[in-house]
Specification:
alpha/beta, 2 domains, eight-stranded parallel beta barrel, two-stranded antiparallel sheet, 12% strand
């Protein structure tokens, strides 16, 4: 149901919530969960009236706060890991590209079932573009999913791979940095209190020394860390991640990590006058985003260097007080790989394509819609087809770009279809949580992450309608 305007929104939701410019009061929690939150999320994403979208987002944020659901920074938990307060627990971080509300609900159901609070919703800079999900919308969908499932506690929402392009940086460094700052500001204002800076694209391996190779990387990471500290909300320390090995490239070495950190610390002291630095470091160990696709569409086996994860994590904790390493491109790894991550003290694992595959390949996903999306990709994404690429490889690599243009069709799928796909996802989420030792972490997370409520200004369109 699309609301005609903000007054219609207020009328249609009045049986469940009472809205004033000061905030949201829940009158009927059961009705809110049963129907109203679904409608608010639908309008947040699909209503063409910007005032309705803004009002829906603000109401979701306020209702979540009333129910004890709050976007949070994972900083406290990662600082504890950096001090060896806990061990052999890896945080799963899930990029959700499409069917976001339903995938988020499946992830939250899994966490609630397994008594876990240390899981992360994330979306990368590139994904924000092709999935048509700006940060404020993405965060509100996650909050809506938490309301729907009866969750309470911190929600960690992460801006993943907030990346700089080497070509743009070479042409105009200040402009490229400013572009990253604009996105960071938008993300933090939208409820992302965890930001991963990715300037690993600026590493120049042709330079003679490790310091020279990493210079642009650590300099930009320090500048953006200082910027984050300037704009972060009061009482929240945004968790910031750095990256030294671009995923899909050369494997990271401990020596590279030390070169990065020593340079980063010096530059941060110059720029941020001793402000708090990064809490984790993303490295390359042999994976590629989405996996390496063979001509028949299957995924090639990869050989991960778990020893690098172990060594760099140990250095990160004991020499720099970080939580440890972050592994990207993990969702398409074989099942027997996941138990190694907690064993090597990997702090966080990023997962995306494997869940996208479950959605597209589900026996419940309508074949006619899938065919329609694939036909659109062939017509509109032909520039992504590399020489010699089979149809299977092309579809596998590009179907992530179908989520944005077909957002309405996906969100309008019958409820039973979305629920069944959600159950398939939940099965995989359960497996990963258990292998990463992320279950039974409620008490641990609450010990180190304290609730902070951020109040948002009431949108002008909503004020006028009240």
């Amino acid at each position: 149901m699309l609301y005609r305007d903000v007054k219609d929104l207020l009328e249609k939701t009045s049986s469940a919530i009472r809205v004033s410019k000061e905030g949201v009061t829940i009158e009927d929690k059961a009705r809110l969960k049963a129907k109203v939150i679904d409608e608010l999320v639908y309008n947040l994403c699909l209503n063409e009236n910007q005032a309705v979208k803004d009002a829906s987002r603000w109401i979701i944020w306020g209702a979540a706060a009333e129910l004890g659901i709050y976007p949070s920074s994972i900083q406290g938990l990662y600082e504890a890991k950096g001090k060896d307060k806990y061990s052999q627990i890896t945080v799963p971080a899930v990029n959700i590209r499409g069917l976001t509300y339903d995938v988020a609900r499946a992830l939250i159901r899994t966490a609630m079932k397994l008594k876990s609070l240390n899981f992360v919703f994330e979306i990368a800079r590139s994904e924000i573009g092709y999935t048509f999900q700006r940060p404020a919308e993405y965060a509100a969908i996650c909050l809506g999913a938490a309301i729907k499932e009866g969750f309470s506690g911190p929600l960690f929402i992460l801006g993943d791979h907030f990346q700089l392009k080497a070509k743009n940086y070479a042409a105009d460094a200040a402009k490229e940095i400013d572009s990253a700052k604009e996105l960071i500001r938008e993300a933090i204002e939208g409820g992302f209190y965890n930001i991963d800076i990715d300037s690993s694209t600026l590493v120049d391996l042709d330079k003679k020394t490790l310091n020279e190779q990493q210079w642009n990387n650590y300099d930009v990471t320090a500048k953006l860390t200082s910027f984050i500290r300037e704009i972060q909300p009061k009482d929240i320390t945004v968790s910031v991640g750095g990256e030294i090995g671009e995923v899909g490239g050369k494997n990271t070495t401990p020596e590279e990590f030390r070169a990065f950190m020593e340079g980063y610390k010096k530059e941060l002291n110059k720029n941020g006058k001793g402000s708090k630095g990064i809490s984790k470091i993303s490295i390359q160990t042999g994976t590629a985003h989405g996996g390496v696709v063979l001509p028949d569409g299957s995924i090639a086996k990869v050989s991960l260097d778990f020893d690098v994860l172990r060594k760099v994590s140990e250095i990160a904790r004991h020499e720099y007080g970080l939580a440890g390493t972050v592994q990207h491109g993990a969702s398409t790894l074989p099942d027997d790989a996941f138990h190694h991550f907690p064993q090597t003290e990997t702090a966080e694992v990023h997962l995306a394509t494997g869940f996208q595959n479950i959605v597209y390949e589900s026996r419940y996903f309508p074949r006619d819609l899938r065919d329609k999306i694939y036909a659109w990709l062939k017509e509109n994404c032909s520039a992504d087809r590399k020489e010699g690429m089979s149809d299977e490889q092309f579809i596998y690599k590009t179907r992530k770009k179908g989520f944005g243009p077909f957002k309405k069709e996906l969100m309008s799928l019958p409820e039973d279809v979305r629920n069944n796909i959600g159950k398939e996802l939940e099965e995989k989420f359960t497996f990963i949580f258990q292998k990463l030792n992320a279950a039974d972490t409620e008490a641990l997370t609450r010990r180190y992450v304290k609730p902070v409520t951020i109040k948002k200004a009431c949108p002008e369109g909503l004020i006028k309608a009240l």
